[in-house]
Amino acid sequence: MGFVIKPAEEWDVPAILAITNQAIRETTALWVSAPYTYEERLAWFRQRRDEGFPVLVAHEAGQVLGFGSYGHFRVYEGYSQTVEHSVYVDADSRKRGVGRALLEALADTAARQGLHVMIGAITADNAASVGLHEQCGFVRGGVLPEVGRKFGNWLDLLFMYKLLSMNPDIESEQIV
Ligand SMILES: CC(C)(COP(=O)(O)OP(=O)(O)OC[C@H]1O[C@@H](n2cnc3c(N)ncnc32)[C@H](O)[C@@H]1OP(=O)(O)O)[C@@H](O)C(=O)NCCC(=O)NCCS
After folding, report:
1. What is the CATH classification number for the domain harbouring 43?
2. For ligand 1, is residue 95 a contact (CB within 6 Å)?
3. Which of 100, 120, 123, 143 is surrounded by the most beta carbons within 10 Å?
């Protein structure tokens, strides 16, 4: 393996920014075309931390190979035990198990936080992400056709979800 998964620190933000912007430039994983600035990525990192959500990095020999995080799925109170995650791996470090290690660590953290469901909102033709999620036990929830656009093409959005091991106290609560 050679890499370790650990919570990100502020000094990891420039590497997180570089990996994010590479995905923006080269893939349809993120449906934006303008690169993020350092200030935007730092604000995102601090917001995740302040809300108690993890940002994890895969480190090897002082280098960040990839990162993953989750946050609110939707802000309404009834969704408070559901989170939406994302995982990004530097193009030179893919197909080495980094994405899987990050996603498994996120799912472990979410289960320990008493969360109930994790959702990946995935561009439907992103075979690498779909394969990664299947391998980590996520199942297909449904597809929203042509809800996005990038590089001159319509994009379909596939939701893949995983029910986490249940906390009996939380499960018995009725949400009305
Ligand atoms: C999707 C992504 C995170 C996968 O990370 P990775 O470190 O390369 O994935 P892993 O090496 O851990 O692979 C885990 C499994 O995912 C699947 N997978 C990974 N890359 C794949 C590919 N190119 N095609 C098909 N399946 C793939 C396989 O099932 C793989 O298991 P295997 O190696 O035993 O076959 C990475 O390709 C990436 O960062 N892509 C750009 C950003 C992105 O799409 N992020 C996801 C947004 S929802």
Report:
1. 3.40.630.30
2. yes
3. 120
pLDDT in tens, 149-159: 999 999 999 99
Alpha-helix runs per DSSP H in 113-159: 127-135
Q: Residue 162 and residue 106: Cα distance in Å, rounded?
A: 12
Q: Is 23 in the pocket of ligand 1 (CB under 6 A)?
A: yes
CA distance 50 to 122: 26
- Taking residue 140's Cβ as centre, other Cβ atoms within 10 Å add up to 14
Exposure pattern of 55-92 as b/e (b: 16+ CB <10 Å)? bbbbbeeeebbbbbbbbebeeeeebebbbbbbbbbbee
In short, whether 22's Cβ falls inside 6 Å of ligand 1 is no
- Residue span of the structural domain in which 32 resides: 4-171
pLDDT tens digit string along 130-155?
999 999 999 999 999 999 999 999 99
Q: Atom 31, ligand 1: which residue's CA is nearest? A: 132
